[in-house]
């Protein structure tokens, strides 16, 4: 999955497997934790390396690193659900903005 290490004091280094975690998910998590860390991201297949450098206001960086990893996972799952549900979402939006029914209601009770 990933591994985390500490380099040069408090800097946390996390390696994410690029086959599992997309760059977009990592970027979204980085944005969420921007108030606690300076974030550097480098993508090099098959890994994406993230350096989390705590800001002065960050009192317990180790705890936030774990939360950062959970946020990356959460963002990745949101992305996958969004991709899987895109067809249904698009159909619902098309139906909502269409003047005619896009569904075949033969034999059904369509409103």
Question: Can you describe this structure?
Answer:
This protein is of the alpha+beta class and 111 residues long. The protein has a single domain (2-96), classed as Gyrase A, domain 2 (2-Layer Sandwich). The chain contains 3 helices and 4 strands; from the N terminus they run E-E-H-E-E-H-H. It has helices at 23-32, 61-84, 86-97, and strands spanning 2-7, 11-17, 37-44, 47-54.
What is shown here, in short?
Helices cover 41% and strands 26% of the residues. With 111 residues, it is of the alpha+beta class.
Would you give the CATH topology? Gyrase A, domain 2
Overall 3D shape: elongated
* Strand count: 4
> What does the radius of gyration come to?
21 Å
Indicate how many domains the architecture comprises: 1
Helix content range of the residues, please? 40-55%
Given the helix and strand composition, which structural class is it?
A: alpha+beta
Strand content: 25-35%
The number of helical segments is 3
Mean pLDDT: 86
| Named CATH architecture | 2-Layer Sandwich
Kindly report the spatial arrangement of strands forming the biggest sheet: 1-2-4-3
CATH class: Alpha Beta
Features:
four-stranded antiparallel β-sheet; 4 strands; alpha+beta; 111 residues; single chain
What does the secondary structure layout of this molecule look like, with pairings?
Layout: E1 2-7, E2 11-17, H1 23-32, E3 37-44, E4 47-54, H2 61-84, H3 86-97
Antiparallel strand pairs: 1-2, 2-4, 3-4
Helix pairs in contact: 1-2
């Amino acid at each position: 999955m990933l591994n985390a290490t500490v380099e040069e004091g408090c800097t946390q280094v996390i390696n994410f497997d690029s086959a599992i975690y997309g760059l977009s998910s990592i970027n979204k998590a980085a944005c969420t934790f921007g108030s606690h860390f300076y974030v550097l991201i480098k993508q090099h297949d098959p890994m994406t390396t993230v350096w989390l450098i705590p800001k002065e206001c960050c009192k317990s960086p180790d705890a936030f690193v774990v939360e950062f990893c959970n946020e990356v996972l959460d963002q990745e799952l949101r992305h996958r659900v969004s991709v899987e549900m895109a067809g249904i979402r698009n159909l619902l939006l098309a139906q909502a903005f269409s003047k005619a029914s896009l569904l075949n209601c033969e034999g059904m009770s369509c409103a």
